[in-house]
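Hey all, sorry for the wall of text incoming. These are the three entities for the joint prediction.
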Amino acid sequence: MKGDRPVPGTHASSTTLRLTVTRGRVALIPLYVPLCIAAFFFVLPFLWMLSGAFKGPGEVTAFPPRFWPSHIDGRNFSTAAAGVSMWRYYGNSLFIAVVSTAGTLLSSSLTAFAFAHLRSRARGPLFAVLLATLMLPPFITLIPSYAIYQQLGWLDTYLPLTVPSFLGVGCAFYIFLLRQFFLGIPKELFEAARIDGAGRLRQYASIALPLAKPALITVGLFQFVASWNDFFGPLIFLTDSSKFTLPVGIRFFQSLYQTDYGTLMAASCLTVAPVILLFLVAQKFFVQGIATTGGKT
Amino acid sequence: MNVTMYWRRLRRSESAAFWLFLAPWLAGFLGLTLGPMLFSLFAAFTRWNGVGSPQWIGLQNFRVMFTSDLDFWPSLGHTFLYAGARVALGTVLALALAAMVNTRIAGRTFFRTVFFLPAIVTGVPLFVVWSWMLDPSGGVLNYLLGKVGIQGPEWLASSTWAIPALVLMSLTATGGAMIVFLAGLQDIPLELRDAALVDGAGWWQRFRRITVPLLSPVILFNVIMGLIGSLQVFAEPYVMTGGGPEHTTYFLGLYLYNEAFWYSNVGYASALAWVQFLVVVVLTVVVLRFSRRHVHYLGS
Amino acid sequence: MRPLTRRRVLRAGAALGTSAAIAGSTAACGASRRKDELVFGFHGDTVSIGIYRRIVELYRRRNLGARISYTYADSLGFFQRLPLMFRAGTAPDVMIVAESWVSGLSQLGGYADLSSFVRRDGVREDQWLPGSLNPARIEGRVLCLPMIVYPKGVTYNKTLLDKLGIPLPRDGWSERDFLETAAAATSGSGVRRTWGMRNAFGTNQPYDVATVHGGLPFDPLTRRMTATDGRMVSALQLMHDLVHTRRAMPAAGQTQYAVDFTSGLFAMDLFFGYALSYLRQQIAERFEWGVVPYPKEWIGTYQNNNVAVFEGSKRKEEAWHFATFIATDPDAQRLLEPVGTPALRTALKGWQQGLSAEDRMLPWARMIADMEHQLVAYQGGIFNKVWDVLGQQVQAVENRGVPVRRALDVVQERGAQILRA
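and here's what came out:
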């Protein structure tokens, strides 16, 4: 299998194009129907979120449901932004996401490189252990790790949300992904470097990492989004409200007894917008990274 | 052999490098994963409310779980049902979407973006919007169904339609699997495809005989990742149904959360968590075993 | 190998930078709660949070030199964290807790017993509205002080009832009047149907079902199940009638998220004191509505908000002082007005005058008087599981028409099994 893998970063050529173009694009038109129907349902929740965010208080729960608000009411956004230090929560979320992404990239690449190219008798069993952690339910470690953090005095700080990523906790999937990628790098490159006198660290830093850029960007993006969306971690470990992140801050709009849908939707839009923007800007990397790693198992 | 030579040997030794590179992960694993795992394994054999000191009761938690707990087996069954439906339908949908997007259709980047988006932008706000859309009387879904002349079911309010509702929602999150399939599709050697075209095979034939077998490793990957994720699902039922109606969406993840945080039954919850872990491991192994016969790796 | 060196430097710099960032975050975060201050923990939406902060400022002005800081979260998050904080010893010294959280977490030993303080300072129960201390009394202890209370009633859609020509509910009405009104107001079919009554009795958490006739599924003191008690049977039978016989109420499964009373599709709904501003805001001018007290046969669930002291607090005396300030000082109670009805009798009149003209017209006197007899739905550890079992059977009765007696027999049996364990 390894021999068949093209050098990472390239795609299949477009020989197919020549053959199918002669069949004409007309044959593809019936595809639009299922594609558009599917696309509609995939996008519907976001459209609804947007529509709800702009509705005035009386309209959100009006019946029958109407898509267009009778008049665009931006009040929800100002309430949402002003009510609970939205901008501070943005900053907190950003900080935690960036730091945990950096940590993930560091620890995952180191570990993946070891599993891919460094030999040891323990490698096989340890890799199996790594795969086993993929299947670990998060609750198994939740309460005991809370106790550990309490002993360390890390509660109500950002440490439980950032340090574990530097130690590869929860990165099993990324390590797996990067290992697949590293395995695709021809051994000859490392051999050449070794002959030149480069140590392992140098081989890792100057050969493996640069070649793995698409995969690293993918891992980074996924981890960023996962950290941005994480609500359980900050909920459990943070008590000072000034440290809250966006997913926790959004819950202020869902009181114990009833939900103010207008402001909740506005706040949701604000939370979700950066991720959508990031995705739109970087989706090329998302796709490219997965294309060169996930497809090969 | 003097110390310098030994040191140089060590530096060049691959084994030493291996352990050095692995050190951070090992530290994290031992301290923050294995340690807590062992503690929760211990807790599974105790009665403990999370505040005082645990009280050893041996196998009693497991005995209760398997014989007298009227929630356990139904919860397990419902979790399997949900996971099975979600993985089966999700994989098929992801493959279908990938195949459609992989053609030379105009606007394929747009479709790819749209299909991938909900998988990334997931979380509690999205679940809230979905439960709002699924509202039996005021929700958009039933409203649209009504326009087409169908009387929509009660979705999350009905014991028969709650799980299908959750599965339906999860189908919009198959973007990740779709991208993986897309990558796999683009890797299929063109010679095979062209040869089939020349032979006059129709697209369905090509799909069945060439594409699917060649994609089988990717299918396996997606199925396993999907199983692991859906057997542990928690946030969706927690936010959208609270486990109801009549506990039909009381999946294992929600069940053990309730036991730990709502009933202060941390010992029992730990036992449940370990059972969940074992279920996931066993199912994964079963799927892998099954795949040996059906998955074709290129070059073999 | 110059490229290597540069890259190495860059990476080393990045590593240093991130470790500096972590160190910085630790420093910034560690200093949030100093050990020598009283910590006040509260929760709610943005309005309530602003109000609690003002209470702290008032307290600081009154007690110069008082060292007090606060921490807050959304209500659900606050509640979810409490058991963990009890265990870790990091709970706030003074906490705002809903009535269900008192009994619910009493077993964890997180709330300090205030009886000795109450006796020592001669705190009188009659300074508060009747029934205010009911949630606080657990097994002979006093675990909190009342702060604000939530009167209960029935809200009705005047516009809809007038349109259908149905007489409006009035104070002193009977359950029979209620049933007839509900049945008459149900009309139409399919998606445009109007209902007589919204199902606000609780599905996953059926507290209002159990207590509507004054029954409870168990006795928390003796740990005996009482699910087949006559009052439980008649309560569930009422639900059954509403859903199946009169078809005036949607079944339990249909917990409305967005389509509630404010949509205008329901002639009646249960009224909770804390929903007042929500109703005003969401309904706006779309239809006219009013509130009546419960039908005379109904009892209902007691709900309020309290202030409690953490058992593990190192400064219980100061905490007690601050707690009594919130619960008994008229100025503090006045600040709480936008959040709910003050528990302190002397603050009641001021609160009523502070209401808007329409809100003042609601039958507060009767609803407040009714609170004295309302039952506290005891929750706590394993009792939550019994409520969960009851909820499942309520859903079975309402969704599938399971006979009431059979459903309650199941609750009785399973509940006994749970409580025995």
